[in-house]
């Protein structure tokens, strides 16, 4: 029994915050492999694979260490007129992490979990958003989206900011 306890004591445990940081790193790797947004200039891009669901990547702003972007399908929700699903992503170039800051245009984290949530609730909310982003990026890659299918578009049907 003591050997089993000693063996499990050597296995490092990852905190929820550590898990979230690892999720950010995975999302950075997926996003970089898929669309290479670090090399894109600000503007709107479409990726079309012929399935009728074009993916829109809006590079909102590029900074020295970050890239702000929005990932969505090129269609609007008939009720709100906003793109849905939609994920706003902050890509950290130096840390090699990509964080989904919010996943629906009309709802920020304050609208979802309140103004003064406990820290555990904030981490849980961020984990859900970034798990969604990771699964979505994986799905887009399986559908054939990527750098080869990405093209810049002149006019944007959707407002970026």
Summarize the model shown:
The protein is 36% helix and 24% strand. With 161 residues, it is of the alpha+beta class.
How is this fold's topology laid out?
Layout: H1 2-9, H2 16-35, E1 43-47, E2 55-62, E3 66-73, E4 86-92, E5 97-102, H3 109-113, H4 119-143, E6 150-153
Protein name: DUF1249 domain-containing protein
Organism: Pseudoxanthomonas putridarboris
Pfam family, one: DUF1249
Helix content: 25-40%
Strand line-up across the major sheet: 5-4-3-2-1-6
Describe the global form.
Answer: globular
Residue runs with pLDDT of under 50 for 5 or more positions: none
In terms of structural class, how would the helical and strand content be classed?
alpha+beta
Summarize the biggest pleated sheet. Answer: 6 strands, antiparallel
Indicate the mean pLDDT: 85
Run of helices and strands: HHEEEEEHHE
Strand content: 15-25%
| Number of domain modules | 1
Radius of gyration: 18 Å
**Count of discrete alpha- or pi-helical segments spanning 4 or more residues:** 4
The end-to-end span amounts to: 59 Å
Please provide the count of β strands.
Answer: 6
Description of the molecule:
Pfam families: DUF1249. This is DUF1249 domain-containing protein. Helix content is 36%, strand content 24%. It is of the alpha+beta class and 161 residues long. The protein has one domain. Strands 5-4-3-2-1-6 form a 6-stranded antiparallel beta sheet. β4 (86-92) and β5 form a beta hairpin. α2 runs parallel beside α4. The mean pLDDT is 85.
Which properties best describe this structure?
about 160 residues, 4 helices, alpha+beta, globular, single chain
